[in-house]
Amino acid sequence: QVQLVESGGGLVQPGGSLRLSCTATGLPVELYAIGWFRQAPGKEREGVSCINPRDGATYYADSVKGRFTASRGDAENTNYLQMNSLNSEDTAIYYCAARPDCSGTMYWALRREYPYWGRGTQVSVSS
Q: β-pairing, 78-83 with 18-25?
């Protein structure tokens, strides 16, 4: 059974940083792209980033470019999302998801292409 579990969320002040983790079981993440999505209250779930399994190519939403970094961890089956310079608009529930490949700039954020999802972790940015 495939399971994705996010961790690392919490409350942080504007300008602060958090690192989210996504740990997978029942899924060889070295063969899967890992996407990060977020959903703020009253808004649709949106793509944040995706990292490819083989070449490590990364894709980011314009709103997080230069502030967020997706990476593959040394720990088995764990991926990370480093979030810097956080602001109130980053407040949301963050989800990780898996699919065979990010499939490039046009398609990496398509939610329907991700068959596996975690339950999310809350990130709140407030002073």
A: antiparallel
H helix and E strand count, the chain = 0, 11
Q: Are 48 and 64 in contact (CB under 8 A)?
A: yes
Report the distance separating Cα 34 and Cα 121, nearest Å: 16
Q: Mind listing the pLDDT tens digit for each residue in 79-91?
A: 999 999 999 999 9
User: Can you say how many angstroms the Cα of residue 109 is from the centroid of all Cα atoms in its chain?
Assistant: 11
Q: Which residue has the tokens 């490039």?
A: 104
> Which amino acid, one-letter code, is at 108?
W
- Cross-strand bridge partners of residue 101: none
> 18 forms bridges with which residues in the sheet?
83
Which DSSP letter does residue 49 get?
A: E
What's residue 54's pLDDT? Answer: 83
> pLDDT tens, 48-75?
999 998 888 999 999 999 999 999 876 6
53, 33 Cβ separation under 8 angstroms: yes
Main-chain phi, psi angles of 90, to 5 degrees: -90, -5
